[in-house]
Amino acid sequence: MYSSGVTGENHLRGVVATDGSGVASFTTSVPARYSGRWPYIHFEIYRSTTAATQYSNKLKTSQLGLPAATCQAVYAISGYSGSAANLASITLATDNVFGDGATTQLAGVTGDVSQGYVATLRVGISA
Fold it and tell me: How far apart, in Å, are the Cα atoms of 101 and each of 5, 78, 81, 98, 126?
């Protein structure tokens, strides 16, 4: 998104515009768990999709953390080898980013593995 010619990456990046109520929605997969981090989805907020071409234009950078029970259920299915063991080795308190307090970044999640999940997080912006 920020570097021209970067096409061979699989970081699931994209730009989503909000609706008239300020709600953004997107479909993605539950991220695999890697060493040192609690499962999360990183996001940045921009004033417009036009401004979302330069990192320096961002209004806010944050992350959406996923509850342990959701991650445990997903990591039990195929395609997530190693994620269950990695999850067992960390807590929100020991994560190097969430360790300062995850309450405002932990999503509410509904759904299940067979039907899919919906994660919701309210993010305040003052600009």
Answer: 37, 31, 28, 6, 20
Q: Where are the alpha helices (DSSP H) in the chain?
A: 68-75, 83-88
Beta strands in 6-125 (DSSP E): 40-45, 60-65, 108-112, 116-120
Cα separations (Å) of 6 from 10, 11, 50, 103?
A: 10, 11, 19, 34
Global pTM reads: 0.82
Rounded Cα distance, 91 and 117, in Å: 21
- Mind listing the pLDDT tens digit of every residue in the chain (127 residues)? 456 666 666 667 788 888 989 899 988 889 988 888 999 999 999 989 889 888 899 999 899 999 999 999 999 999 888 899 999 999 999 998 888 888 899 999 999 999 999 999 999 887 5
Burial track 42-66 (b if 16+ CB lie within 10 A, e otherwise):
ebeebeeeeebeeeeeeeeebbbbb
What does the alpha-carbon distance between residue 106 and residue 83 come to, in Å, rounded to a whole number? 19
What residue spans define the domains of the chain? 40-120
